[in-house]
Amino acid sequence: MVTGHPARAGNRQLSVIEDSARVLSPDPATQDAALNEMRDLDADVVKIPVIWRNAAPRPTSRSKPSADLSDPDAYPAGAWTVVDRAVLGAATRGMGVWLMLTAPAPRWAVDKEDAEAPGATQPDPKDYAEFAEAAGRHFKDVKIWSIWNEPNLSLFLRPQFQNGVVVSAIHYRKLYRAGYDALRSAGHGRDTILFGELLPRAPVPRRANGTVPPLIWLREFFCLDAQLKAYSGADARKHDCTGYKPIKTSGFAYHPYTTPDGPFWKDPRPDSAMIQHLERVFKVLDAASRTHHLAQRRLKVYSSEFGFQSNPPDRTMIPINLIPLYLNASEYLSYRNSRVATYSQYLLRDDGATEAFQSGLRFADGTPKPGVYDAYRMPIVAVRRSDSSVLIWGKVRAGSGRPPKVEIQVDDGSGFRTYKTVRPNRQSGYFQRVLTGVNADGDNFRTKSGSFLSRETKAEPAPAMMP
Description:
Elements: E1 14-18, H1 20-23, H2 28-40, E2 45-51, H3 52-55, H4 81-92, E3 96-102, H5 125-138, E4 144-147, H6 167-188, E5 192-198, H7 214-221, H8 233-238, E6 251-254, H9 278-290, E7 301-303, E8 310-311, E9 318-319, H10 323-336, E10 340-346, H11 372-377, E11 380-386, E12 389-395, E13 406-411, E14 416-422, E15 430-436, E16 444-449, E17 452-453, E18 460-461, H12 462-465
Parallel strand pairs: 1-2, 1-10, 2-3, 3-4, 4-5, 5-6, 6-7, 7-10, 8-9, 11-18
Antiparallel strand pairs: 11-12, 12-15, 13-14, 13-16, 16-17
């Protein structure tokens, strides 16, 4: 069984899809249907959470079992079964697998149990290392790993903030180092091991169990002050940075969600970074490299959870008619940045409860969201270059080997006609072409491939697409 980077993977950006409710369903038919749809949407990678408490022996006990928990065979019968089936199902369909080893931790591994966030209070790094090694030894063919989920959110790691210090970043530093070393010990030294999985936006921290803005959190993780200088002396001791050793990693996993204003809005909060502000993230990563607190240079970002929650069904979220443009613009912004390794779609299908996530391509009942599903399958962006010149960028997710030819069509008011037929990149499915002799301010544009049609769009001014 091979569960590494798929042969179809693009030369610039992999497509990642995550929907654990369906991929980890105990019902094989539900699981198979989800994996089939991911394959048909040309997913390069399926992201799957492996929840520590779900796998651990005696997960609600205060007493740690005496067994060697770095041995996957020491875990209860069936502990790995549902994930096994998902990993095998993805691999047999030609997709890579990304496993995220995450909270909640078992009761015996945490400092205390908090009813608001079970298994989140300062989990023991040594215990986590054993779990990570067991997972690494069991899933020996998986090639992409990440450590924990949203450690800047108190639901998953607490406390977040104490006495002016982002203690969650300090504790996560220990968890990450333990997990990284354990996966390497389990035979994954040449595989992709990621840190982070951070939320993209939050107010300045003021209480222990809140959320910390990602750039404040990142600076603390790398022992950097607000001016991106390494802590020294008393500050280094206060932030647990004495004797700091460079972080070794394959990349930074990140959740670059936008607000309901979408990917064109300029966020005034300087320590938040949505998909249109990833340069803020790179600035911190590069500072960590310059101070030798990060071993790698020009580290890549892996977009690992992303999407747009829609109205309907949630009346507080984004009007559904805006989401096709937001989806396509976000993917284009991601594609343009050579340091972004992946583009992620979080959820095939909405969660059933309105208070949960509604970022699926389908409603909870399985109905495709109007405009949204097709916009993901066949994204298009038109960028105005001059009065008579437009850049057309897009992709076709046809789910069948080499991407088929795509017709770029133009409507000058007399109906759509095919202006040019192009062959997308045979690995990634992406294409871009410059059209000349068009009316950049008046014409409509779309793409067509077989029975698939993109949305219709006007050309956007270049600054809107290039924050």
